[in-house]
Specification:
This protein is α/β, with parallel strands linked by helices. It folds into two domains: about 170 residues, HUPs (Rossmann fold), CATH 3.40.50; about 90 residues, Pantoate--beta-alanine Ligase, Chain: A,domain 2 (2-Layer Sandwich), CATH 3.30.1300. It has eleven helices and nine strands. The strands form two sheets. It has a six-stranded parallel beta sheet with strand order 1-4-3-2-5-6, sandwiched between helices. The chain is globular and about 55 Å long. The protein binds adenosine monophosphate.
Length: about 280
């Protein structure tokens, strides 16, 4: 049985009754097998798992994108119960941001390029809401998907910089059989766009294969990804990146670890994916 709470007071009372250590899985709902894998990772390590389900308005650039974000409360609660989450917390915006709210986390250079450049204010919104969720739940561990690699890097940086007493756990990307990462946004792809979308992962695999054969020029790896994407007329690339996985700065050569990442539009839907080297 997953207990459902909404207000800060309900959350506080429910948390007091849970065994420790606690794990927190922050989500925006429309839960799928990717989210389920984070809950499972917590269930392996923590005595109780809290899933937060909150479509955070401050991390959306446009009111349209926020309004179109899929919502499925009944499905979400069923998934939380099936995965054995102890608590599902579904706050209203006023439960997360109290009246008079005026304090936020300022993020640094790690949040500037890639998703940060494409979505101004996005990572400040993410970091601030994650700080609030961590503060209200006080988990021993919090779980994030590597699918959102820059988000994970921003949260890890914040946790270190602000001395937050929580372990951040990064979890592998869960994919459909054709390589497309599971994402709440995938339901908005038209059938032809869904059929075209696996080109994103094929582009990453092309660059990984080149690297495995000894290619070390980041520009050559970027060119291989761009060329693969060019073979799919429905794919509109936004960025193609080979960056340092800690700082997110673009690399000239890949001598150690690297993050290969892409943002690609298919019609109105923007998809991101990445693979890590080293
Ligand atoms: P979201 O609900 O999209 O904000 O995602 C909540 C958490 O689930 C984030 O840490 C995501 O990185 C993670 N996540 C989303 N999709 C996947 C996936 N396909 N595989 C693994 N983790 C994921």
């Amino acid at each position: 049985m997953t207990q459902v709470v909404r207000t800060r007071a309900e959350l506080r009372a429910a948390l007091a009754a849970l065994p420790r250590p606690l794990g927190l899985v922050p989500t925006m709902g429309a839960l799928h097998a990717g989210h389920a894998s984070l809950i499972r990772a917590s269930r392996e390590r923590d005595a109780a798992t809290v899933v937060s389900i909150f479509v955070n308005p401050t991390q959306f650039g446009s009111p349209d994108d926020l309004a179109r974000y899929p919502r499925d409360e009944a499905g979400d609660l069923a998934l939380c119960a099936a995965e054995g989450a102890a608590l599902a917390w579904l706050p209203a915006p006023a439960d997360v941001y109290p009246p008079g709210f005026q304090t936020s986390v300022q993020v640094g250079p790690v949040a500037a390029p890639l998703e940060g450049a494409a979505r101004p204010g996005h990572f400040a919104g993410v970091a601030t809401v994650v700080a609030i969720l961590l503060g209200l739940v006080l988990p021993a561990r919090a779980y994030f998907g590597r699918k959102d690699a820059q988000q994970l890097a921003v949260v890890e940086r914040m946790t270190l910089d602000l001395g937050l007493p929580v372990e951040i756990v990064g979890c592998p990307t869960v994919r459909a059989a054709d390589g497309l990462p599971l994402s709440s946004r995938n339901v908005r792809l038209a059938p032809a766009e869904r059929a075209a979308a696996p080109v994103v992962h094929r582009a990453l695999m092309a660059a990984l294969a080149l690297h495995a054969r000894g290619e070390r020029s980041a520009e050559t790896l970027r060119a291989a990804m761009t060329a693969t994407l060019a073979g799919e007329p429905l794919a509109e690339p936004e960025y193609v990146s080979v960056a340092d996985p800690l700082t997110m700065a673009e690399l000239e050569r890949v001598e150690g670890s690297a993050l290969l990442s892409l943002a690609v539009r298919f019609g109105a839907v923007r998809l991101i994916d990445n693979e890590r080297i080293g």
